[in-house]
Amino acid sequence: MCIRDSFYRLVHIPMALFDLKGNVLVSAGWQDICTKFHRVNPETCKYCIESDQKLSLNVAPGKYKLYKCRNNIWDVVTPIMVEGQHIGNIFSGQFLFEDEPLDYELFRSQARKYGFNEEEYIKALEKIPRLSREDIDTGMAFFMTFANMISQLSYSSIKLSQSLAERDAVVEALQEREKREKARSDELAAVLDAVPVAVYTTHDPQALKITGNRLSCKWLRIPPGTNLSKSALEGEKPEFFKLFKDGVEIPPEKMPSQLSAAGIEVNDCELDIVSADGRIRHVLGNARPLRDENGNLRGSISAFIDITERKRVEEALRKSEEHLRLLSDNLPDSAVYQYTLDPDGSGCFQYVSAGIERLIGLNSRDILNDPSILYRIIPSQYMGELIEAGVRSAHELSDFDMELPVELPDGRLKWIRLNSRPRRLPEGRTIWDGVLTDITRLKRAEEVLRESESCRKVAEAVDTERRRFFDVLETLPVMIALLTPDHRIAFANRPFREMFGNSGNRHCFEHCFRNNEPCDSCKAYKILETGQPYHWEITTPEGRVFDTYNLPFIDVDGSRMTLEMDIDITERKAAEEMLRDSEEKYRNIVETANEIILITDNEAVINYANSKLVDMLEYPLDEVIGKPIWGFISKECIPAVRQNLEKRRQGISESYELKLIRKDGSPVWTFLNAKPLFDRNGSFTGVMSMLTDISKRKEAEEALANIETARKKEIHHRIKNNLQVISSLLDLQADQFKNREDIKDMEVLSAFRESQDLSLIHISEPTRQEAISYA
Known about the structure:
Elements: H1 2-11, E1 15-19, E2 24-28, H2 32-38, H3 42-55, E3 65-68, E4 74-82, E5 85-97, H4 104-114, H5 118-126, E6 130-131, H6 133-152, H7 155-194, E7 198-202, E8 210-212, H8 214-220, E9 241-245, E10 248-249, H9 256-261, E11 266-275, E12 280-291, E13 297-306, H10 308-329, E14 334-341, E15 347-352, H11 356-360, H12 364-369, H13 372-375, H14 380-396, E16 400-407, E17 413-424, E18 430-438, H15 440-464, H16 466-475, E19 479-483, E20 489-492, H17 494-500, H18 508-513, H19 526-530, E21 534-539, E22 545-554, E23 560-568, H20 570-592, E24 595-601, E25 606-609, H21 611-617, H22 638-649, E26 654-661, E27 667-678, E28 684-693, H23 695-738, H24 747-764
Parallel strand pairs: 5-6
Antiparallel strand pairs: 1-2, 1-5, 3-4, 4-5, 7-8, 7-13, 9-10, 9-11, 11-12, 12-13, 14-15, 14-18, 16-17, 17-18, 19-20, 19-23, 21-22, 22-23, 24-25, 24-28, 26-27, 27-28
């Protein structure tokens, strides 16, 4: 190596010793273009090795070979022989001839092709030695002599040199590895100090030494590197903290770091660290054993997070839930509930406060076990609205707010309000958190308020519109008067004045009835006692009837008065009496009629039927009203009825026979008269039908048809015999008149002959008997 280095310093010709595989054993003067570029890039490095191996083949001992490598730089080689065996080569090169022009474009293209920094690559190129061919010859003469000298040395000396070189390389690699390991160790220490987790490292299987990261030392207010092992030797055990689990101090052998150092994994371990000053820190963590490359235990590592705040929040939450439960159980007019709806549509109550029993008489445990008992106290007419509101709330995740009555077990009726807000869980369940409130008193107060508001508005309207009110009263076609408590007429409208004249503020009993004292039968002033309107009828001595309304009236000055309105209903009473008589008469007619009277709508649904239908079809009315007619008609008649119904829609009335079906399935024949019904706009509204039971007539017709057939046969038989007798008698009679002189006209004979002919025709043609009239 000294010779190599001295030679390079002397002539500045690079050289290297290669084995046959192209590995560089020693070198001197290697140029940057090779070490920093060609030998770094995988592709160009491959070219270097291939060139060194292939171009150095077949070089004779004591000779050298000049060649240009694939990276376009000149090299020379001469072989090294030991005991006639080719063991390596001495290379020189990495130069250009001084008379050779420098092809910058070629090397720039190489830089671009292999990704070299072009400027740096050209600078390295320009540093390459420029030698003459004489310099090469002189240098190679030295190298060949040097190769011959090496050949004289023992191969073992070369191996020793190589081993030493390899040792130096290994030592250098180890030192580099130690640097890297230290850097990684420093990085890991920095990470451990930066993470918000307390990390404890056990340095031996016996857990005699345990150290922690910055956060763990900060928790205990100790300097970094302090031994934290409770398993340490006497005198070294730390006394500045204790570990507790579930309120019991943990012995050293049961601590997480000691357990994991013994090969046991510890998961989700929750502990309490009690420091010397009495402060308690709740922690949660895991511990894992550490093993060496052979799998032997060498310690452990554990990591814990501070859950003190979480525990505090959990305790606060528990107390808050307890307070909330106590509050919800004792709310005066409310109860708290939580309802859950699963994706499959099934639902149940998760929580119902105890106050529910005080509100609606149902135990919370019973509701949790069977939610349907709550639904059973809700009137059926509200269930549809309740279900619809629940579905809408679940679909839109909107607030559920509904007021509805409930029937308590003791029969009382209460009003409740259900108000809740839904939330969707990741698995698809929907949960409502809500409040059930008794609003019975509120409902009653609202009703009273509405009534009070109505009265107030009426009073204001009377006060502000009094004059207009009087103007209206003046134009009304009924008699109206305002009466004071002492029976004076304070106001009378035009019809009243026309009937009784101008009152002049006189007493009503004087002005209207010419009495000196109030009328005993007068009821107009009852409202002054009761404060409520009063309605009654007055019949005058002349027989006229007045429908009288007495209303309380407060004048603008606050004085109480009676407003009396008299409507002459003499004619109406007479008409009503006539109408009642008429309605009673027609009601009796309808109910006692022997026909079914039926009214159907435009869809053939029965709206009305009299009691005759019950007698005829044996159906109760509640099974008929509201039902289509098709269920009561025989199947063979339905097509004809449908066709006839279209005629009703066209305004055509019609009569026809119709077979109905009784409840027991037996048929009944009826004769139907149908009349279409239309509203004022001319729209078809239904059909009114009268159906007469003709079953007996049908049976009689069938029996009569049978009797008529038999009767005709009997008559034919009798007439045939009688006609034969008559025919014979006529023959005898004709013979008596034939020779008598007193017969002046042959008409008698002709009559006899015609009678005879007729009888003979009847006798000879019995099938024509139906065509003969016997009247």
